[in-house]
Structures are given as C-alpha cells and as structure tokens.
Design a protein that fits this description.
The structure is a homodimer of 318-residue chains. Chain A is of the alpha/beta class and 318 residues long. Chain A has 15 helices and ten strands. Chain A has a six-stranded mixed β-sheet with strand order 1-2-10-7-8-9, sandwiched between helices. A four-stranded parallel β-sheet of chain A has the order 5-4-3-6, with helices on both faces.
Chain lengths: 318, 318
C-alpha cells in the first residue's frame, strides 16, 4: 500500500508540469449545507480532471525501454487524457481503448493530445480487457487505472487540501476506480486520523460501494451516465486501501448528481461532470452529519459534454 | 499612468490571498483558429473573475482612517465581488450599488461576501453616480472601476501570461471599464512592444471602442446582455492608456459572444460569462490575422447565471 511518503515523493513529478489547484470557499454552498464548504477544483487541471497528476507521476518513473515501447491503456476519458498528456510531455507514444459510446468530447481531447484512440466494446471494462491483451502482444506496458503510481500522483491533491485547510473535518471524494479516494485516504489518515474521508458513487453503478460494504469483490450492474463513476468490475488494490481508509461510502442517484451539476453551476460557476458533482450530491444526502463542520468537496473533473449539460438544464431548471 | 514597476509592486498584495491562475493550451481551440491558442483562466479566481486582484491591491494600500470609514462602490457584479472579497479579507465595511436588473447570482455572491448591496437605477452608470454622492456625504472612499490601484492589481495576470509564455504574439482582452486591457497593455508593451494587445467589446455597448477609435470620449447606446462589457459612459483614464497601448479594438455581436460561450464549454469545459467569452468571439472575427500565431485569450470571468446559460444553449445547440 502506498504511504504518505510515496505521495510526497510524487510531488516533484507533478509540479514539474502543473500548479496546485485552488481550494475555494463558497458562501452559497455553505448556506445550503449548513456547514463550511470548500471545493477542491481539480476541474481546473489542464485536461479538466485530477487524473493528470497520476499520469505525470507514472510516466516520470518509466525506464527508457518502457518509454520506447509506448504505453497502452483503456479509459472512458479522463484517465486516458491524463496518460495522453503525460505521454506528450515525455514524448512517449500512447494507445488508448475507449468504449464505443465514450463521451465524444473526451475522445477528441485524447486525440488532441496526440494519443491513438481505438473505440472498442460496450463499457470501460470490456475496452480494458481487450487493450491489456494487445499491450501484452506488442510488449508494451498496460497501465491499469489503479496502478499505485497513479494513486501516488493523484494523492498530491489531498496534500494540497490539508495544507490549505489543516483543520478540515470531512473530505467527500467521488469513486470511479478508486485512485482519488485512496490517495485522499492515505494522506488524510496519516496527517490526522480524525479527518473523515467519505467516498461516493452512483447508485446506478454501485460495484465499488457494494464491494466496500460487503468486504468482498462483487461486480454490479452499471448504467450510470456519469462515466467517471462507471465501474462495473471492482479493483482489488483500491478496495483494500479503501477498506482501511474510508469512514463511509455513500450511493447517490444519477438524478441527484444531475441536480448537483446545476447547483454547482449556480453557486461556483464551474462546470462539473457527473463524477465531479457526486461529492456535492453525497454531501446533501448526509447533510445532517455535516452540520457546522469544515467540509471539502472534491470536484474531480469538469469534462461534461455540451449535449449532456443541455439535457440536464432542460430537466432541472424552469 | 501606472508603470510595469507599479504592477510588479502589486504582486505581494495579490499573492497574499491568491495564487497565479493557469494558462492552458487547448488543441481544439487551436484547430478552430488555425493558431496556437492558450486561455488565461481568470474565471478560476475565488470570485470567478480577474477583478479580485485589483480589489486586494486597493484595500491593501488604504490608510487606517480610510479602512475605518468603510468603502463604497458600484458594480454590475464582478467589480463589487472583488471589493467585497478584499473588504472581508481586511475587515473593512463595503457598500455597493448595483443596477436594479443586476445578475442575481452576482448580487447574492456580493452579499455572501459580507457586502451591503443596494439596487439602484437602470444601469451601471446610474448606480455609480448615485453611490458616489452617498460616499461623499458619509465621508467614505468611493472606489471607481478604473482606479489606478485596481489597474495595477489586475495587471498582475498579464505578468503571469508573459512569464508562462514569453513568446506570446497576441493577447486578446475584453474591455468593460478598461482596467484589464490597461494592465495587459502596460505589461505587454514594457516587456516586448511587439506583443499585440487587442481589446474587444460588445457591438451592443460600443462606447469604449468608439471613444478609442475616435480619440474623443463619446457615450453610446448600451444594450448588451454581457454585463461585464456594459459600459455606457467611457472612462477618461483608461481611454488614455488604451490609446497608447492597444493595437486594435474589435466589436463583436452579442450573438457571437453567446456562440463563443458554447464553443468554450465544448473545448475547455469552462463556463465563461459574456465578457469572458468575448475574447474568443473577437479572435474568431479576426482569425485571418492570427493564423499560426501564439494567441492568449483572456477568460476574464465565469459568472454566467444558470438561466442565461440555459437560454444560450437553447438558441445555440441542436
């Protein structure tokens, strides 16, 4: 399991290309939740999501031979953009499998960063299994979404949170494959075990939550529209860390996530994708337990397509 | 006229409370414009707009007596949020007049930052003249939107641009009262006179552009929906600086600004308010002149209301 020290060691790899993201306090959200509410703006990253920290840490540590062979991965979008960004930064060839119905903005963004993107299969897990095969055949490194080097890289945002707000009480973090929640948990519990770390996932894609709650790796139906939360098959290594680090793990309906997208637009003027808005949806659901506390909501990413945004506004406003 | 040195001197006042904002490169916008395109993300500021830099610089320099008397200003929203933010940071009482039809999100945000907001008059200029009277009666400082201390504060974003991208060719900057354009011009021309600084304003609120083009202070009809550009009566001091510093000053239709809001959502996943999107609208209009160049678009702010966003998406998509 990665340690606080491993995450501290990732910082130079991250800050070679990125700056810390802001942690902003919002009076409107604070009023709404009856708490003191800050948002960690990972949507401000150059590719619009926290994962870019992990990609940069991973590629920084590759051998010359690994870089020369190119790297392979699968992604619904943000993880792929992260690896593509890092590959471009270091001149490493990147090949990405994405599900056939992937968010077209995210596919365009991965291609814009120079990656080769191949659409394959009905969901992330199908694309992942297929691309892992191809990487093995070609002798290149397949980067899974829960690689420890990614966890250490993304954990650097949690270090920024505890530095900017040392007396934080609760951090609410969305869970897709779990790298963000793991990095946050490792940092928070090492710095101050009293900091509560609460994961959240869509009720329409509850595999990670069910696995956490039951202590066993269980797959589950996946029909969320929030692709950043769309995990059907749980990951063993992040589950192991989350078991130890999460104080709670909340499921929120996609409809509540969509409502949270609108609330965040109104109070922060930031566009959150579904995963990025799930932390607010979860906080609203457990509002009673947050009363008066210092709460950080991780806005993990902002890569919502214009079409999806329009649909949400049609449903949620007026 | 403020100098580069005055703007450098403002930095400690700004960085006491804020971090530099990102300058992100966007492949999608670059393709669209046939240029290398970066966006300066002033929408990432804690109050969602560049002006907060100016407020912090101004309040930092007030005397004890001025702080004790409280400060007064008028605003369509962003300037007021800036002064309110700075007032809260230093414990100074802030009173703000806003036009009766002010963006309700921005009014709520000013109040959320602890300012007293009074709605008065049909537009910014009416609110301003009224509040300046009241400040004089009460013996408090009235802060006009083009105070030199504000220009120096906001100019710090231009320093960040030339530090992050020393070989920038063109900076496109929206003009409301002109503080951003002045700060940008002073920095750019002092650092490298070959950097082109291009202002832009709504064709539905062309007072500042008409004044710049004619060399005389002329008011003009004001019916833009982009409140950050909604100047009816031009400002003498910013006009004087812009005369010297701007290479061009482009008018863009409100409809093109609305289209640019959607294009920015698509390619950057950032919400821009009208003023913040005007720089892209202007760049698209003068695309031929930008071909192959390194272009920075200043996204001056992101405080678009959800209702207005919904209206824009209704008109622009599908």
């Amino acid at each position: 399991m990665p340690t606080l020290n491993d995450i501290i060691a990732a910082r130079p790899n991250v800050y070679r290309f990125l700056r810390p993201t802001p942690l902003h306090h919002y009076p409107g959200l604070s009023q709404l939740l009856g708490a003191h509410v800050w948002v960690k703006h990972e949507n401000h990253q150059p590719v619009g999501a926290f994962k870019v920290r992990g990609g940069l840490n991973l590629v920084a540590g590759l051998s010359e031979a690994e870089r020369a062979a190119g790297i392979f991965t699968a992604s619904t979008g943000n993880h792929g953009q992260s690896i593509a960004f890092a590959g471009r930064a270091y001149g490493v060839r990147v090949t990405i499998a994405a599900p056939e119905a992937a968010n077209p903005d995210k596919v365009a963004a991965m291609r814009g960063l120079g990656a080769e993107v191949v659409l394959h299969g009905p969901d992330f897990d199908a694309a992942r299994e297929w691309m892992a095969q191809i990487a093995a055949e070609r002798g290149g490194l397949f980067v899974g979404p829960t690689d420890e080097r990614l966890i250490c890289g993304v954990g650097t945002y949690a270090l920024e949170i505890v530095e900017d707000l040392p007396d934080v009480d609760v951090i609410v973090v969305p869970v897709g494959a779990g790298s963000g929640a793991c990095g946050t948990g490792i940092v928070a519990k090492a710095v101050n075990p009293a900091i509560q770390v609460i994961g959240c996932q869509s009720a329409q894609a509850p595999a990670m939550q069910h696995s956490w709650a039951s202590g066993q790796l269980v797959s589950a139906e996946m029909r969320t529209t929030a692709e950043g939360l769309a995990t059907r098959v749980p990951f063993e290594n992040t589950q192991r860390i989350m078991c130890e680090m999460l104080d709670d793990f909340v499921l929120v309906d996609d409809a509540d996530i969509d409502a949270a997208v609108v609330t965040l637009l109104q109070h922060t003027h930031n566009l959150a994708e579904g995963a990025g808005a799930a932390s607010l949806a979860a906080a609203l659901q457990i509002k009673d337990r947050l009363a008066g506390k210092k709460v950080v909501l991780v806005m993990s990413g902002g890569n919502l397509s214009v079409g999806k945004l329009h649909d949400i506004l049609q449903k949620q406003t007026r």
